[in-house]
Amino acid sequence: MADKQAVSGMLGKAGWAYDQGHLDYLESILTEDAVFTLSIDGQGQVGNFEGRDTIMGLYRGASESQEDQRRHVVSNIFFEDETDSSVTAVSYLTLISISDGALNVISSGVYTDKVELVDGQWLIRNRDLALDLPY
Q: Cys-Cys link to 81, which of 53, 64, 88, 116 (CB 3.0-4.6 A)?
């Protein structure tokens, strides 16, 4: 069976890594041919990003444009389609912004991550993020 603790830890650390500017960690948990799909309620799909380099370009660009401190809170993780070498992890995202002494929830959503064991490391092959509001 999949190592659920390792996968949960990886997903939580991914949110922390983005918030702290450790984008190298995010890059290290994506397969080279990873796909990231982003949709926003009421707007439909706003992006289908193919390949680790393209996804990292999105993450880097978003990070550089943000003047606030973000907190990506990943919670309510559960698993589907589990095998010894792959699993689908579903989790909630609560996106918090801290700016000018104020803390605001700016969006929430659901991650669906298809994760595979590659050379002894759990990596994200497909990530889908369905947001409730724009970020």
A: 88
Dump pLDDT digits (tens) for 113-127.
Answer: 999 999 999 999 999
Q: Answer positive or negative: Cα dihedral of 119, 21, 96, 109.
A: negative
CA-to-CA distance for 88 and 42, rounded, in angstroms? Answer: 25
CATH number at residue 99: 3.10.450.50
How many distinct structural domains can be found in the chain?
Answer: 1
Distances from the Cα of 72 to the Cαs of 1, 82, 83, 84, 91, in angstroms? 28, 25, 28, 28, 12
- 96-113, pLDDT tens digit by residue? 999 999 999 999 999 999
> What's the rounded mean pLDDT across residues 15-42?
97
The parent domain of residue 19 ranges over: 4-131
∠ CA(45), CA(99), CA(92), 5° rounding? 40
Distance separating alpha carbons of residues 7 and 89, to the nearest angstrom: 8
Distances (CA, A) of 14 to 8, 44, 83, 100, 102: 10, 25, 22, 25, 24
